[in-house]
Amino acid sequence: MQKLNFLVADDAGFIRDLVKRALKSQFSQCQIDEAVNGRKTQSLITRNRYDLVLCDWEMPELSGLEVLQWLRAEETARGDGKTPFIMVTSRGDKSHVVQAVEAGVSDYIGKPFSNDQLLRKVFKALSVNHKGLIRSILKGQAAMAKPQTVHGESASVLTAGMAKEAPQASTSDGSANVLTAGSVSSKLAQTSGKQTGKTATTTKAVLRSSKGQWPGVVRDINLTQVAIQFAFEEVLPPGLLDQVVVDLQMPNQPDSVARINGFVTDIALKEQSRDCRRANVGVKFVDDDPQKMEWLSRLVAAVRR
User: Fold this and answer.
1) Which are the contacts of 208, defined by CB distance < 8 A and separation ≥ 6?
2) Which of 149, 122, 152 is nearest to 134 (CA)?
3) Fewer CB within 10 Å: C terminus or N terminus of the chain?
4) Which stretch of 72-76, 153-157, 183-187 has the lowest confidence by average pLDDT?
5) d(CA 240, CA 70)
6) Strand order, beta sheet including 52-56
């Protein structure tokens, strides 16, 4: 099999490992370089040629968008073809998708994602320059037997593609993305039950996985993990070790929201009943971004006053 060179850029080692594992599952002979910030990403691209770059948006020193803009400017100046570039990020709102498209992104995938979702994006990006290789892989993969979902997307419909990848769990007030919209439903607080005493201020959150999203409230939080209580209906909660993103809102500041990457460490129903539709979930944070950690420090201080 042809050897491909990948660059995976993300400040969170947990996310880099997930991406590397997905790539190696299909490209056993590939070379994968890693970068923990934007400057390192830029340096590696300067020294090497990559068949595909998978880059986080929110990174220290240089953002993924700044790296992409620099790369496209360099390629234009040299007269080179465009390096396939997939933005991998927890920023899922339409305005950020538009920015990435305008900067020349090849494709865009929102965190959290499943292996299948990521690989569909990878196959699509690689099919531009390695169509024969991707076609041979798809022929042997029953799970990837729908080439129209790999080749049929265009940059103009990236937003619609993201909506299919992350089906949204319904909320009590019908709002599917309450934090992004900047208007968290006051009804969420009613499902939180009695405060534990560890947090003095109600802090709203949205838990997101590749299966859906669930608005809720923070029961406890520190710099490394968070406990969230939420209600669910048709879409079941994420499972142990599932990749998730937690959207956290600063108390009394609806426009101040951070999206923290993590994975599920524990989950428990509020009642021992098959009809129970409320759960508590524990999430371990995996982000190393200093800006996110500084924001998280302020949030912890605010809710524990």
Assistant:
1) 90, 111, 112, 166, 214, 244, 245, 246, 247
2) 122
3) C
4) 183-187
5) 39
6) 31-35, 5-9, 52-56, 85-89, 107-110
Q: What is the pLDDT of residues 56-92, one digit of tens each?
A: 998 889 999 999 999 999 999 998 889 999 999 887 6
Q: Is residue 211 within 8 Å of 112, Cβ to Cβ?
A: no
Report the candidate in 192, 263, 216 with the shortest Cα–Cα distance to residue 17. 263
The Cα 78–Cα 88 span in angstroms is: 26
Q: Is the pLDDT of residue 189 over 80?
A: no
Phi, psi of 81 (to 5 degrees): -75, 165
Q: Show the tokens assigned to 35.
A: 């970068």
Q: Which domains does the chain have, with CATH numbers?
A: 5-165 (3.40.50.2300), 186-303 (2.40.10.220)
Residues in the chain: 305
Do the beta carbons of residue 205 and residue 226 sit within 8 Å? yes
Q: Give me the residue label for tokens 């299966």.
A: 211
Q: Which two tokens stand for residue 301?
A: 């201080």
> Residue 53 gets which letter from DSSP?
E
Average pLDDT (132-137) is: 74
Residue 88 parent element (H or E): strand 85-89
* 267-291 pLDDT tens trace: 999 888 888 899 999 999 988 778 8
H, E, C per residue of 111-159: CCCCHHHHHHHHHHHHCCCCHHHHHHHHHCCHHHCCHHHHHCCCHHHHH
Q: What share of the chain is helix, strand, coil (3-state, %, to 5)?
A: 35, 25, 40
Instruction: Tell whether pTM > 0.85.
Output: no
More confident residue, 280 or 148: 280
Q: Which of these, 103, 95, 106, 13, lies nearest to 54 by C-alpha position?
A: 106
Mean pLDDT calculated for residue range 181-201: 38
Q: Angle, to 10 degrees, between the axis of helix 64-78 and the axis of helix 38-47?
A: 20
